Each structure stands twice: as C-alpha cells, then as structure tokens.
C-alpha cells in the first residue's frame, strides 16, 4: 500500500446520537493523525436515507465502511479503540494489536 493512497470512508449513523458523534470524532482524529489529508469522510444518516443501508449491507450502526483503497472493509462501533480501527483500515498490521 502506498503512502499516497486516498481513503474513501463512509460512516453510517442513525441521527445525532452520542455514539454516532463519538464515532465521527474518533474517526476524524484517527484520519488526521494517520492519513494526513489523504481521506474523504462521508457521513450517511440512515434516519434520513434508510435505503442507503442496503448498498453496503449495513446491519449495525455506527458502521465505518472503507470504500477505497480496495478491498472494502467494515468496522462497527464508536471507533474508540484506535488500534482496532488502524488494523481495520489496514494502516497497521494485525500483529500490532495487544
């Protein structure tokens, strides 16, 4: 994976819940620290657009979907476990998880 790759991320939420807001805040912080401007975050509120859940097969919220670089990856939850998110986004090898 190249250090110049652009990350396309979709964060599926349901309204402005505490967990949804935490997930966005945590994601933004991780992206700023590890992707240095090489990312786009699209927040999709399933209360406003429930039909969009079908396309990415969203079963729980909040869910983060990494569209690019491929392969597509999904991470469910508030993204508070930074190590798990980094591994899930392939920014860190799984062997680094303690």
Give an overview of the whole structure.
With 98 residues, the protein is an alpha+beta fold. It has a single domain, classed as Glutaredoxin. It has three helices and four strands. A four-stranded mixed β-sheet has the order 2-1-3-4, with helices on one face. 20% of the residues are buried. The mean pLDDT is 91.
Count of helical segments? Answer: 3
- Quote the CATH topology: Glutaredoxin
Strand content: 15-25%
CATH homologous superfamily - what is it? Answer: Glutaredoxin
CATH architecture: 3-Layer(aba) Sandwich
Specify the CATH class: Alpha Beta
The biggest beta sheet is recorded as: 4 strands, mixed
Name the poorly predicted regions.
Answer: none
Looking at the structure, what is the overall shape?
Answer: globular
Q: Tell me the count of domains.
A: 1
Structural class: alpha+beta
Lateral strand order in the biggest sheet: 2-1-3-4
